[in-house]
Amino acid sequence: KKDFLGKIFLIKDSIKKHNWVLEKETKNIGVYKCYKATCIIKDRIENDSIKIVAWYTPEIPIGNGPSNFDGLPGLILEVNDGTYTIVCSEFTLNPTQKIKIREPKGGKKISQVEFDLIEKKKRKEKKVCKNQLIF
Q1: Which contacts of 75-84 are long-range, i.e. CB under 8 A and separated by 24 or more positions?
Q2: Contact (CB, 8 A) for 67 and 78
Q3: What residues are paired with 41 via a beta bridge?
Q4: Of the chain's two ends, which shows fewer C-beta atoms within 10 Å, N or C?
Q5: CA 19 remoteness from chain centre
Q6: Residue 133: is its pLDDT beyond 50?
Q7: Mapped to the 3 state alphabet, what secondary structure does the chain carry?
């Protein structure tokens, strides 16, 4: 579920599999020894190639991570796309209360590609408006 320019969109799409390259470099994030992994993805909006750097820990053998990044042999605790870095600061293993995930409601149902095209169009419109003088 995404709110973009005051409109709600329900994006239904599959999660893309990344072709991770496992590196030998390590660092500690909190108490966990993490290993570096990299992959190249194509930015669907700008059509550029982006290098993703992730740090995962096999000490927590869950192949998940933030945003749409997963598929490594351990939990991703940090991921960077060259512009933004997401770092896990806290998580709880085996919570005492069950977590109930509810499907989002209330918005236009579209695919990720459709959403990306809408976003790209609006960004171009915004860029054009910035370059025009309005009296």
Answers
A1: 77/29, 77/30, 77/32, 77/34, 78/29, 78/34, 78/54, 79/52, 79/53, 79/54, 79/55, 80/52, 80/53, 80/54, 81/50, 81/51, 81/52, 82/50, 82/51
A2: no
A3: 50
A4: C
A5: 15
A6: no
A7: CEEECCEEEEECCCCCCCCCEEEEEEEEECCEEEEEEEEEEECCCCCCEEEEEEEEECCCCCCCCCCCCCCCCCEEEEEECCCCEEECCCCCCCCCCCCCCCCCCCCEEECHHHHHHHHHHHHHHHHHHHHCCCC
pLDDT per residue over 14-29, tens digit each?
777 899 999 999 999 9
Query: Is the torsion defined by CA of 110, 112, 114, 118 positive or negative?
Result: positive
Q: Would you tell me how many other CB atoms lie within 10 Å of the CB of residue 2?
A: 14
Residue with tokens 């993490």: 34
Q: What's the predicted TM-score (pTM) here? A: 0.69
Tens of pLDDT along 81-95?
Answer: 888 899 988 777 777
